[in-house]
UniProtKB/TrEMBL annotation:
It is found in: Membrane. GO terms for molecular function: urea transmembrane transporter activity. It comes from the Eukaryota. Belongs to the sodium:solute symporter (SSF) (TC 2.A.21) family. The chain crosses the membrane at residues 12-33, 54-71, 91-110, 130-153, 165-184, 191-210, 253-275, 287-312, 352-375, 396-418, 430-448, 455-474, 494-515, 588-607, 619-644. Its main location: membrane. Keywords: Membrane, Transmembrane, Transmembrane helix. CDD domains: SLC5sbd_DUR3 (cd11476). The keyword Kinase does not apply. The keyword Membrane applies. It is a multi-pass membrane protein. It comes from Aspergillus luchuensis (strain CBS 106.47). One of its GO terms (cellular component) is plasma membrane. This is Sodium/solute symporter.
Amino acid sequence: MAAVELVTQGTAYGLLIGLGVFFCGVILIAIKVQKVYLSEDSGTSEMFMVANRSVGTGLTASAVFSSWMWINETVLSAAMCYRYGLAVPLWWGSGLCFQIALMAALGVMAKIRVPYAHTSLEITRMRYGWIGHVIYMVLNLTNNVFGCASMILTGSQLINGVSGMNFVAATILIPLGVVLYTAVGGLKATFLTDFLHTAVALILIIYFTLSVLTHPEVGGLAGLYDKVVATASENYISGNFEGSLLTMKSKGAIIWGLILKFGNLALVVMDTAFWQKSFASEVNSTVPAYNLAAIAVFGIPWGLGTVIGLTARALHHTPIWPTYPVDITTTEVSKGMVMPYLVKALLGESGMIAFFVLLFMALTSTVSSSMIAVSSILSFDMYKTYINPQASDRRLLGVSHITVVFHAIFITGISIALNYGGANMTWIGYFRPILSCPGIIPLGLTLFWSRQTRLAAIASPVLGFFTGLAIWLATAKSMYGAVNMTTTGEELPALYGAIGSFFSPALYSVVISLYRPYTFDWREFLRIELAEEAPTRTSPPAAQETKVEGVYISTDASPTSTPSRLSLDDVRHPFTEDTLRKLHRWSWIAWAMFVVLVLITFVLWPMPLYRNYIFTKSFFSGWTSVAIIWQFCAFFAVVVYPLYDGRFEIAKGVQGVLTSSRELINRHKS
């Protein structure tokens, strides 16, 4: 039960169910318009899983941004700023963008090496056989399921905290509406809903930032600074320079930032959803779209986290605070209750409804993306590979629909179990890197190092996980004398465990690979076929050509011409030499962007400020103003630009609807 009821249970139930039904209806209508007027039918597995590899730059950027704008980037960034000061939001922003830039480089290399892949696991199966395939399938599934379940857990705990709604009821209702449009519409539906979620969420983020900052109790940037300085003695932060909230020299913030970077890196690279979005994007869209999203997402935790976290620190001992005179507890901070308490204090009932909508946007975006990713793994990598290799496209699509529903039920159960096990978003943030990091380097080497052997790829992530786990638990025992939810939720054991999980597989992989050297022939990857080209159909279609980004790709599906039946000497890349040159150029651009982002956000920007310095009023005002401007730039990048990028498709769809409406009206008149 909520300590203080910020929203009535009736309002919470109404919002959760109503928003689910509304967005489900909007997306299903959009899917119908796509099918009828844009000839985009989600009734094929290729469209369901990778959207026919035809998604443009704007929509891809919006979808990647939305998939990465979890509850953590809004609610938890504010809570951690409350805990450690303004250093956290900047470290949080830097901990979001570099992974997306890295995924751009991996995505474009995947297009070069494996142009017809549907999931990252197909790549591991082709190179390492069924054992390697199963190992990475487990790593991907645990990363997806654990990440998605943790977000549902976080959302359910927040809903329970603000309204007193039964936790189990909230956990069941969150994924309910998402199941229908995801099962029907597939990946393109998640792209569309990601865009809607992004638009609504960014409007609300800007609204919260400006409304809180300009509230009379805060008094703008100058007023916020004065209040934080005035309450400095009662808000002393151990580990910060002079205990100040207004310094970048914060031990707790930098440790949290490092843990976050490891965890987020795993969530991107080991999440099939991000690979699928790169497979689904057009040839020339992957790198621009991912880097646009990477730059845009930086400003979300930076601006919102700074304003909400510091304002909460300034006001949590005043009569307007909802729990006054009782202070917010450490447990409530860990559950993310800082932002809803502040919103209730300053913006009242209407603000809480807006907060609920923001919460819903972040949750359902994460869930829909995870559903498609897990569905693709279970249907394509498990069912078609090991259970029914002769499955037709229609059968495969049916299995995909079933697995979407199964995944929703499964993650609901996992979320409930995590809650009753005592987990919260902070503990999960510490544990996740240890679980998910071991596969990152071996998976990357799968595309970039031809000498990584099968044994190395299979053994190194397993050994890496146990290495990280042992370091985590042993450090907790050594430093705090016990191993339990409290000691394993401390910062240093989690950081050391994450370092072990991430770096040790690189050592294991190199040593094992050098023990029995082997060189992989990259042409093997060209044997992966489009889903509907599998030579299992009873009546192969005639040869035809499909145009993708000005490149004609042969789709001759006759049994004598499929890549799996050709020798390596006869296998030809489906892209022309000109397209491959463009992709290699994009690869260099992607790596350059990755290096630049890492240098700026890890070194050149934060490190000079990590010194004995407390922000002055003018510096703080400039710092926060830039963060707010960044939010508006993000809005134009991932909301306005996708509308411009897809203007012709939008116009075609609107024209089709209007024409059909006029015809229907005329028939009724006659």
